[in-house]
Amino acid sequence: MKKTAFALALLSTLSILTIDAQVTTLADQKMTQFFMENVERTGSNNNQYLPDDNIGSPYSNPIFLLGNIYEQNKVIASNYALRYNAMQDEIEVKENLYVEDSEIKILTRNPEIYVKIMADMYVFRDLIEESASHGAGYFQVLYVGNTYNLYKKVAKKYYAAKKAQNSFESDVLATYLDRSVYYLVSEGGNFQEFGSSKNKRLKLFQNKQSEIKKLVKSGKLDLTLEEDLMRAVKYYDAISSVQ
Most buried in the list 105, 200, 228, 233, measured by CB within 10 Å? Predict the structure, then answer.
């Protein structure tokens, strides 16, 4: 199977850099075990979540990657194999890259605990405004500033496969579509959702809209693009922090 072969090839490459999962102290080890729950839903023989005949993936990172688990900004487990399941909104955990998928555990949702999967940071937040598209769950942290942060909610929508009804049609593969929603998060934890259009995103910068407009024009930015939106948020944070 193509995906299996790709995963094995990437794991072989990663194994050169891989060391066994390490927990800093015995107390941290007990705490880490406390925060992980056994899960039987996802296993190595379960094709519901990793089929070969589909487009896209239910995961933010399709295969397990090395990362760290933190509690209150302290590393409690390092070099664990981690994966974010966007469909279930869960962080899947294995002790290392070589453990069978049948040994997958789920990280307990707790605002005091976050993970870094390679360079990507995921935090759990349970106090989200009712008007937001998403409630409590995991968010990817794109930028941390002095006054404002930029969060991204990685959402997935699943469309089941469809068989052709006649000779004029073709089979339609099962598909996972991505839809990212971005949030401007204040220092106090207030979430403001960026709309999908350029104008809606510009309005969220409130009394600094004129300054952001100048930045967009001079830098030829497109606020519907993640990289450009992040640049605008960084500038907004900088000019808001000086007050």
Answer: 233
Tell me which long-range contacts 69-74 makes (C-beta under 8 A, separation of at least 24): 69/32, 69/35, 69/93, 69/107, 69/113, 69/114, 69/115, 70/113, 70/114, 70/115, 70/116, 71/31, 71/35, 71/110, 71/112, 71/113, 72/112
pLDDT at 80: 94
**How far apart (Å, rounded) are the C-alpha atoms in residues 154 and 85?**
10
Q: What is the mean pLDDT of each run of 10 residues along the chain (243 residues)?
A: 42 37 50 55 41 80 92 92 94 92 90 94 81 79 96 90 86 88 92 93 94 96 96 96 70
CA distance linking residue 130 with residue 60, whole number of Å? 25
The residue whose two tokens read 């993640």 is 226
- Which residue is it, tokens 């060391």? 19
pLDDT at residue 171, rounded to an integer: 83
Q: Answer whether 107's CB lies under 8 Å from 70's CB.
A: no
Q: Distance between the two ends of the chain, CA-based, in angstroms?
A: 57
What whole-number distance in Å separates Cα of residue 172 and Cα of residue 242? 54
Q: Is 86 exposed, middle or buried (0-12, 13-18, 19+ CB in 10 A)?
A: buried
For residue 167, the model assigns a pLDDT of 83
In the three-class reduction of DSSP (H, G, I as helix; E, B as strand; rest coil), residue 186 is classed as strand
Beta carbons within 8 Å of 50's beta carbon, 6+ residues apart: 3, 57
H helical segments located in 80-225: 198-203, 209-219
86 within 8 A of 126, measured Cβ to Cβ: no
Alpha-carbon distance of 196 to 168, in angstroms, equals 36
Q: Which residues pair with 117 in a beta bridge?
A: 67, 120
